[in-house]
Amino acid sequence: MVWLIAFVFSWVIFAIFVDMKRLRFTIYGGIITVIMGTVVDWGGRELGLYRFNDNIINWAHNSLFYIFGPVLTMGVLFFQFLNRDKRIQAVNILIFSLTYLAMEYLTVKTGTAAYQHWHYLASFFIDLLVFSTLSYYGEIIMDILEGKGTFLHSKR
Q1: CA dihedral of 116, 119, 123, 125, whole degrees rounded to 10
Q2: pLDDT band at 155; cut points 50, 70, 90
Q3: What are phi and psi of 50, to 5 degrees?
Q4: Residue 58, SS3 per DSSP
Q5: Of the candidates 28, 41, 39, the residue with the CA atom closest to the CA atom of residue 137
Q6: How far is it, in rounded angstroms, from Cα 146 to Cα 151?
Q7: Is the pLDDT of residue 53 over 90?
Q8: What is the dihedral of CA 133, 135, 139, 145, to 10 degrees?
Q9: What pLDDT sits at residue 149?
Q10: Numbers of helices and strands, H then E, in the chain
Q11: What average pLDDT score do residues 42-68 get?
């Protein structure tokens, strides 16, 4: 039931904050986040680091409602708030990482997820890496869609 609540809550937050005019760009953030989240959580489960309980519809040992709720919507919103100013982007990475960690904390406290050989600090570190990686890919995609070539070859 928690996964369903998280799914609905994520989509409500998404509906409030999404910029529909930029969705053709920001949807890539959701797609990349779904792929990364699926792989990371599948690996974590396979390694016995943590597990997810009460999966209504299973998706690589995760709940489909988790992957296409909080994970997808946060990825889209993260891309929406990308900023070329590295200081602002660092704050963006920190805020999204802490928000994701808060959601994870709630799922563990409700018993929907369980740590076996894992810790919140490890999750926070992984979240920082994931959102930093998303920033990098987001800038590349933004450059391509704006016709500037790739991030590595653009003039700055």
Answers
A1: -140
A2: very low
A3: -160, 170
A4: strand
A5: 28
A6: 11
A7: no
A8: 90
A9: 57
A10: 6, 4
A11: 85
